[in-house]
Amino acid sequence: GQNIDQPTEMTATEGAIVQINCTYQTSGFNGLFWYQQHAGEAPTFLSYNVLDGLEEKGRFSSFLSRSKGYSYLLLKELQMKDSASYLCAVRTGTASKLTFGTGTRLQVTL
Amino acid sequence: DGGITQSPKYLFRKEGQNVTLSCEQNLNHDAMYWYRQDPGQGLRLIYYSQIVNDFQKGDIAEGYSVSREKKESFPLTVTSAQKNPTAFYLCASRLGGFNSPLHFGNGTRLTVT
Questions:
Q1: Is the Cβ of A97 closer than 8 Å to some Cβ of chain B?
Q2: What is the pLDDT of residues B4-51, one digit of tens each?
Q3: Which residues 24-83 of chain A have a CB within 8 Å of chain B?
C-alpha cells in the first residue's frame, strides 16, 4: 500500500515564509507533485520533483529526498491569496496513477 | 481556450437513483481520471483511462462505472450501489509522460438524499 502524510492545518503571517512537509511510504516511486486548491475549486499544479533536490519557481519552491521519503513545499513572501489547501501527490511505477495526501490547509493572517 | 468541462456544478438526487456526471476535455489528452474528495480525506481515485476503450479501477471503484468511447469524454455513473455518494467529484486529464501534471475540471458537487 501507499501512505502519504501531511499536517492538517498551518497558520502563517503575511510576508513570512512557510514550509509544508510531506512524507510518503510507497513502492516504485516515480515522481511527486504539489497542487494548490482553493475552497470549492479545482486543484492547480504547482511543482514536480522526481530527482533529489530543490526546484524553484518564483515564490514557490519544492524539495525532494527520495532516500528519506520526504518532500516540502516552501512558500515565500506569503500573500493573503495563498490561503488554500496544498496537496502532495505521489506517482508510482509505470502506471498513470497519482495518489494524493489529505492536504494541508494553510491560513495566512495579517 | 482548451480545458476540462464538468457539468453540472451542483447535482441533487434521491437515494436509489443512478446519476451520470459529465467530463469533457479539448486538450487532446490521452489519460483521464475521476477522483472523489471528501472533507479530511483528500482526493481518492475512482477510475482512470489511459486510452480510448480502456479503463482501470482506482482505489474506490465499487458503486461506480465509467466509459471511454471517445478521447474527449469520460463520463462517470454513480450507481445506487454506492453507499455514500454525496461528495465533490473531480475529473482530470493529462497529456502523457511521467512529468506531465494532471489538469482538473471545476468539479461537480453531488448531494444524494
A1: yes
A2: 999 999 999 999 999 999 999 999 999 999 999 998 778 999 999 999
A3: 30-31, 33, 35, 40-45, 48, 50
Cβ-proximal residues to B29 (8 Å cutoff; 6+ apart), any chain: B93, B94, B95, B96, B103
Concatenated DSSP letters of A28-63: SEEEEEEEEE-TTS--EEEEEE-SSEEEEETTEEEE
Compute the distance between CA of residue B50 and CA of residue B62 in angstroms, rounded to an integer.
20
Phi-psi region of A15 (alpha: psi -120 to 50; beta: other; left: phi over 0): left
For chain A, say whether B85 makes contact (Cβ under 8 Å): no
CB contact under 8 A, A33 and B106: no
